[in-house]
Amino acid sequence: MNDGHTVVMSLKGESVSEYINITSGGLHGKYRAVQLHFHWGSLKENGSEHTIDGRQFPMELHVVHMNNKYKTINEAKGHPNGLAVLGFMFKVSDADNTNYNTIIAALKNISNDGSSVDLASTFCLNNLLPKMALLSKYYRYQGSLTTPDCAEIVVWTVFEEPIPISQSQLKAFVNTLHFPRNGTSLLKMTNNFRPPQPLKNRKVYASKDATVSHSAMCSASSLLFPLSLALLIDQFSGPT
Known about the structure:
Elements (H helix, E strand, L loop, with lengths): L7 E5 L8 E4 L6 E10 L10 E2 L2 E2 L2 E9 L5 H4 L6 E11 L7 H6 L15 E3 L13 E6 L10 E6 L3 E4 H10 L28 E2 L20 E4 L2 E4 L4
Parallel strand pairs: 7-10, 7-11
Antiparallel strand pairs: 1-3, 1-14, 2-3, 2-13, 3-6, 4-5, 6-7, 8-14, 9-10, 9-12
């Protein structure tokens, strides 16, 4: 779905047991995936909402999970540990990432605000992500939503290994989608990201395999254990 701000893909599951779940790695409880969405810049500017060692990336994927203790995402938003979001950066590569072909092809059908399409395909979410062996490098902090009201209710996990995507695939996001119509003007959906915010007093924890200098993180005693991602074959009802 083009929700007027980004591409949102809903994750279907007949029961809690059929959802994609994450646990461990310092998380308090089990979280199930409910949707994923993207943030990007323009063809001339990067658009990730996080930086890694000061580097910003062209695009960022967020996989949004809610705590299994809660029945709805609105209920989860009322609690400090209600949501857990996995953040993945993208880097531009020479070749297309064929795992994204179905998503890229569907963008033309959701060009305008409010439009949606069902993807008949069945996805394995981990095909959209870096290889499992590379997911041991990540960072964790307690933060906020990046869209209004920016409530401080999110446990963020940001992965170090970027996802490759070609320039033409990135261009499809930048050139195909539009923001809500402003009068008679139809504006391309670019720079739909919130700039990185000051850390203030937040602590950023690093997994033991993370490579960014730990002097910028917490002490070694605060390093995270491996995160368990049960990335099962599931169905996307989107972009919806």
